[in-house]
Amino acid sequence: MKITVIGTGYVGLVTGTCLSEVGNDVICFDTDSAKIAALKEGVIPIWEPGLEDMVHRNAKAGRLHFTDDIEVATRFGTIQFIAVGTPPGEDGGADLQYVLKAASNIGRHMTDYKVVVDKSTVPVGTADKVRATIAAELAARGIDTPFSVVSNPEFLKEGAAIEDFMRPGRIVLGADDEQAALNMRALYAPFQRHHDRLVLMDIRSAELTKYAANAMLATRISFMNELANLAEKLGADIEHVRKGIGSDPRIGYDFLYAGAGYGGSCFPKDVKALIKTAALDGGMDMQVLAAVESANQQQKHVLANKVKARFGADLTGRHFAIWGLAFKANTDDMREASSLTVIQDLLAAGATVTAYDPVATAHAQQMLQGKGGISYANSPLEALEHADALLIVTEWKEFRSPDFDSIKASLKSPVIFDGRNLYDPKWVRGMGFEYLAIGR
Ligand code: UDX
């Protein structure tokens, strides 16, 4: 099939590349000409396991193309994916300007039947706006070319994006007409393993499904974080509690890890956007989600608060090592990362920090530009030099079984604040460390 993907961010680039991998002819568009030029050279703007090889392979095979020419892009695909950003607007709702701009470009240039696919995370009702925008452009051109609009939210996780796309647990599709559903079913046929993964529904339900999934997961995390804070006060261990409740199949083990708060490009943004949509379009106050959001804001400060409780509110002259900057392991993404809050809190209290991350350092440097008191190390051990304590913020594999003797020898005092509960407290304390984790 001929496919156009508008937007080469995380979702767009992964979608386009994986669709070319199964033999489709794909063109990826972006307004950022420098990014397109780089992609044509094989330079991938994001760090995602397996993506680079797949881009190179399919570009070489002539199935994957990149362009910054919107006319070329919108004329090309029978299926037009809109995978542009929906950043939070000033009021916390999703800003749809890029989505609607893509829709109007499709309407302006299309010459034959198109299935327009909303892949971006968009509020309920956006498909109607996309449809109206395209129809208005066609009317302005005085033509009546048929098109369909469908909603096909993406559930991929950063760090596992290729695997998630190639072997999806489910493919949610909101479609109001038979022709579009047929096209989409054919498109996803190569990704159906053993049984049909397509969950077909009306468009509004599909749009809400995306927010519902992320809001549910964020709720689990905030709930566990709150429970962890309580466990600490009561002398219980949240890790035991997690295993105890996770063994109930109605609860399950996944997404029950207490930590330093959730970050990333989806949960914080989508929770806020759903609260906004509910208020604006539903006249409803989402009480549970409001609590999820505010509990998460507080949780991001927990690690730095523990440091202050241990070393004093005034941290002048203190120096700390930070292991992990990315919002989670296996990504270089720093969006809404808890490390940003931790670092800002420590700096504001007068401390200095040295941070190490296997891949996110460059992005962190950009985001923390102009802030004094922070330096970056090239290895975990280098970060520890002259530090009063170690703070672990991201659960990178390489932090899971470190050389504790070297850590002890490097730190001024053997204190570890673990925002990811990576170690058995008994084990670490047995080696002479003061170990302050989350909820235990
Ligand atoms: C998420 C959804 O999982 C994905 O389906 C959707 O398409 C996009 O948003 P992602 O943002 O890549 O994916 O990261 P995810 O692995 O879900 O983690 C989100 C945040 O929650 C991270 O900061 C992570 O550290 C935190 N988290 C996750 C916890 O604190 N505890 C957990 O148990 C799980």
Automatic annotation (TrEMBL):
Enzyme class: oxidoreductase
Enzyme Commission number: 1.1.1.22
Binding site for substrate: F155, L156, K157, E158, K210, F255, L256, Y257, A258, G259, G263, K328
A GO term for molecular function: NAD binding
InterPro entries referenced in this protein's UniProt entry, alphabetically: 6-PGluconate_DH-like_C_sf, NAD(P)-bd_dom_sf, UDP-Glc/GDP-Man, UDP-Glc/GDP-Man_DH_C, UDP-Glc/GDP-Man_DH_C_sf, UDP-Glc/GDP-Man_DH_dimer, UDP-Glc/GDP-Man_DH_N, UDPglc_DH_bac
UniProt domain UDP-glucose/GDP-mannose dehydrogenase C-terminal: residue ranges: 321-425
Keyword set includes Membrane: no
SMART domains: UDPG_MGDP_dh_C (SM00984)
Any one of the GO BP annotations: polysaccharide biosynthetic process
Binding site residues for NAD(+): D30, K35, T86, T121, E158, K269, R335
Pathway it works in: Nucleotide-sugar biosynthesis; UDP-alpha-D-glucuronate biosynthesis; UDP-alpha-D-glucuronate from UDP-alpha-D-glucose: step 1/1
Active site as annotated: C266
Catalytic activity: UDP-alpha-D-glucose + 2 NAD(+) + H2O = UDP-alpha-D-glucuronate + 2 NADH + 3 H(+)
Alphabetical keyword list: NAD, Oxidoreductase
Similarity comment: Belongs to the UDP-glucose/GDP-mannose dehydrogenase family.
Known role: Catalyzes the conversion of UDP-glucose into UDP-glucuronate, one of the precursors of teichuronic acid.
Protein name: UDP-glucose 6-dehydrogenase
Organism of this sequence: Rhodoferax lacus
Lineage start: Bacteria, Pseudomonadati, Pseudomonadota, Betaproteobacteria, Burkholderiales
